[in-house]
Design brief:
202 residues; alpha+beta; nine-stranded antiparallel sheet; two-stranded antiparallel ribbon; 11 strands; E_coli_cyclophilin_A-like; EC 5.2.1.8; Peptidyl-prolyl cis-trans isomerase
Amino acid sequence: MRKILLPLLTAVMLIGSSSSVMAKKDDGSQVQPDNYYPRVKIETTMGDIVVELDRRRAPITVNNFLRYVDKRAYEDTIFHRIVPGFVVQGGGYTADFNGKSNFPDIFNESGNGLTNDLHTIAMARQSDPHTANRQFFFNVNDNSSLNPGRDWGYAVFGVIVEGEDIVDAMSEVETEYSIRLNANNVPIEPIIIKKMTVLPPL
């Protein structure tokens, strides 16, 4: 009886071990795991943008972003905050200004050496440095004020490689105050993210 139980116990342990490993691989790290510079195509109502992400410098942030892309969680969200000469921010709300659900907040990787230069992509957050989750923004200027110094900065995790003109055009659309969001700088005509796709490795 003991000879039969031991192989069964070993099999159960192996199954449990493999399933726990599989469970852990749902954080974005499973998306092109050997590619340090994955590219994502962002299809919007104003045109397409391609970003190249830097997994070497910002592994937590890139995996988090890829997790939302993999879950198709950015589809039908909007760019809700546009400040000319500063940022184009989105990924958190629907066109009806309903907030989307988040995965847990992530560690702030703003000290990774990447800076908030023109046409980079970075994570939005609240005043607490470690509150980034799904919202991101494009820098439409060299925004050195967003880099870390005495305080935590805003984590840059990639750069636009196609569609810089699209983002520049976004930064110039007409905006207004939104009662629903209780915020200024909201585009009058919604700019919607229709789809995000992880492109094949180069």
